[in-house]
Amino acid sequence: MHKYKNLVTRRQFMKTAIAASSLSCLPASTTVYASHTKQQPNILFIMSDDHTYQAISAYGSYLKEICPTDNIDRIATEGIMLKNCFCTNSICTPSRASILSGQYSHKNGVYTLVDDWDPDHHPNVAVELQKAGYETAVIGKWHLHTEPKGFDYYNVLPGQGLYLNPLLKEKGIRWKDHNEGGTVHTGYSSDVITDEALKWLEQRVSKDDKPFFLMCHFKAPHGLWEFPERHEHLFDGVDIPEPPTLFENKSDRSIGSRDYGSTLSNKNKIRNRVSRMQNDWWPSGKLDVNGMSEKEMTRAAYQKYLKDYLRCVAAVNDNVGRLLDYLDQANLADNTVVIYTGDQGMLLGEHDHVDKRWMFEESLKMPFLVRYPKEIKSNSVNEDIINNVDFAPTFLDFAGAQAPEEMQGRSFRSILKGNTPSDWKQATYYRYWMHRAHHDVPAHYGIRTKRYKLIFFYGRALHPRSNEIWANSTESHDAKQLHKVSGWGKQPPGPTPASFELYDLEKDPYEMSNVYEQPEYAEVTKELKKQLLQLKVEIGDTDDAYPELAKLFQSS
Question: Is this prediction's pTM over 0.85?
Answer without folding.
Answer: yes
